[in-house]
Design goal:
single chain; about 325 residues; alpha/beta
Length: about 325
């Protein structure tokens, strides 16, 4: 059983908190770390039409309050309390389906960084109240849930996705996949989500999780934006779901010594093959001189590869570039 509530972990004043709850079954086991991932239970469904269009979720038309974007929300998933931050636009209209974007932090970071730090994705600013945003929090190495700090943390927080790398942990990744299922279900039940426009942006191990979601939840996500990410399923990407293919914009640092250019290129080439793209590229006139667009991709499955002259970081503008890419998709 999955239940939701708001956690009183501090933060600035906002517009109230979500009072509704949702339930789902979570289960299964899957892959972990940088290793092969299992399916870990069925993905959450994509919702039905509700009078807000065929892609509108069941939450369309329902009254909803806006949670404080700095107050941790909670979901009980598999007997473990999981934390996430959520941003609902100030002008939220429950009759208008909105895209949903997950912003996923890296290893030993927290979701406050992903949501609010200037070195993070800056999705609140870049989406300009045109999307619902969810920032999940990973679990500590021991797998026991603890509330994240109210301050941005990078390198000082004990948190990960699928277990701390390089150790493979199939059960831990299955638990994280169930967490994403629960967040999606809760959002669809309580807000007007455009179920055809669900996206993920992730940095480092969050980029690994982004690519893993693209494999393990292929029917859910329309587009992915890994930054310094690898996978799916490790340094030699694979995916047992033959239908997994996604519009992708990938960002890689030229001198990244943590997630090396070779790892980034391996991920790029995996999705290039899945998207049916040729090996030829043209400089992108849409996303900047540091990006190239692959040619000949299957319809609706563009691939953009961006580099930056730096190491293991989120370059300025990466979040905004991801959002523009998502907006460009039909």
């Amino acid at each position: 059983m999955t239940t939701s509530s708001s956690a009183g972990t501090g933060g600035s004043g906002g517009a109230g908190t979500v009072a509704s709850s949702s339930s789902s079954s979570s289960g299964g086991t899957g892959g972990a770390g940088g290793e092969p991932a299992g399916t870990g239970g069925d993905p959450a469904g994509t919702g039905g039409s509700t009078g807000a269009g065929d892609s509108g979720s069941m939450g369309c038309g329902a009254a909803a309050t806006r949670p404080d974007p700095r107050t941790q929300q909670t979901l009980m998933v598999g007997g473990v309390t999981r934390y996430y931050l959520m941003y609902v636009p100030e002008n939220y209209d429950p009759s208008k389906p909105l895209p949903l974007v997950f912003g996923i932090h890296g290893l030993n970071m927290n979701n406050v960084w992903a949501a609010h730090d200037n070195s993070g994705f800056q999705l609140i600013q870049e989406t300009d109240d045109q999307a619902l945003l969810i920032y999940p929090q990973g679990l500590p190495a021991d797998g026991r849930s603890r509330p994240p700090s109210t301050e941005s943390q990078w390198g000082t927080a004990d948190s990960n996705w699928g277990g701390p790398p390089p150790t493979a942990n199939r059960e831990r990744l299955a638990a994280d996949l169930a967490f994403f299922d629960a967040m999606l279900e809760h959002a669809k039940a309580n807000y007007c989500v455009d179920t055809k426009r669900v996206f993920a942006v992730g940095f480092s191990q969050g980029g690994f999780m982004t690519n893993t979601l693209g494999c393990e939840r292929s029917s859910v996500f329309r587009g992915l934006a890994p930054v310094a990410g690898w996978g799916p399923q490790g340094s030699q990407p694979t995916c047992s779901d033959a239908s997994a293919a996604h519009a992708l914009i990938q960002t890689q640092g030229d001198t990244d010594g943590t997630v090396t250019p070779a790892l980034g290129q391996s991920t790029r080439d995996f999705w290039r093959g899945r998207n049916g793209c040729e090996a030829t590229t043209v400089p992108s006139t849409t996303f900047g001189n540091a990006c190239v667009e692959y040619q000949g991709c299957n319809e609706g499955l563009p691939l953009v590869y961006c580099t930056h002259p730096g190491g293991h970081s989120v370059p300025s503008g990466a979040g905004g570039r991801a959002w523009r890419f998502f907006q460009s998709l039909e």
